[in-house]
Amino acid sequence: MAADLNAVGPVVATMFFIIITGYIARKLNFIGETSPKLMSDLIIRVGQPFMIISAVLGMPYSDSNLREGLLVLAVGLIVHAVGALLGFLATMRIKNADARRLTEFAIVFANCGFMGFPLLRAIFGDVGVFWGSFYVIVFNLVCWTYGQFILSRADSSVKIKPLNIFINFGTVPCVLGLLLYVLRVGDILPAKALEAMDYLGSICTPLSMLVVGGLLATVPLGRLFTEPKIYLLSAVKLLVLPLVSSVLLALLGFSKEMAMFGAVMASLPTAANTAILAESYDINPSYAAHTVGVATLFSVGTIPVSLFLAGKLLDFIFA
Length: 319
Known about the structure:
Oligomer: single chain
CATH topology: Na+/H+ antiporter like fold
Number of strands: 0
Order of helices and strands: HHHHHHHHHHHHHH
Largest sheet: none
């Protein structure tokens, strides 16, 4: 199966248009101060579970598909480990503790569901979304363990809660979807039920991009692109991480398609969780929103570039 990188541009352009729409809507007060929180809750509690479950059930069952899904778990762990190392090293010289930890968190964790799934479908087809649902399992496990550890170094009141590691709106749908997949429930569900779940899952991407646009609108225009730490974050997160991850996966013996899959997931901008958790723990939420918004905006240009370069490196390695 060959990755279709030509499909990246149109998908990213569509997301950019929605971000700008969210920006304008917030400026015109069509999106109020409380709207981003409400939309984020709707995404996490309704859209994301259905997006994950419909992605898993949408693939016909086979042992090879299941093996590939389990292999993706390893890919996810490696990409997050590379991100953790790069994030720690890149932020060592940032003096402000809140900004240092939030920037580190923002480098490690990507918008792998809401932006990742449309890209994966465009590049790999339905199997890409199937792989993505397994990747999200790793994202949630790492986010609620290492991610909480990062934030705890900025605020000692942040604690790792064992229950949250496994019981959250990302991991539970993934495990449930995997169980339903193994039991082949998708084969007996009515087509309209699967279609309804797909519709509910499809709200994630447009709503999340509107939220990002709204977050961008809260940052004064004069300092939107004048924060040096944002450029550091964007360079490491959007360019260095996908290239290092793809090469490392190839050198570790993963297939070219799996290495490119890792590059796609690593190339995605900062997770919206950065702003959501910063708001919850009151750790400089305005800076967190700034990182999410600007990194997402930059990713419109960096995703095609980083995936093109990763493709060339993989062509050389697998030649």
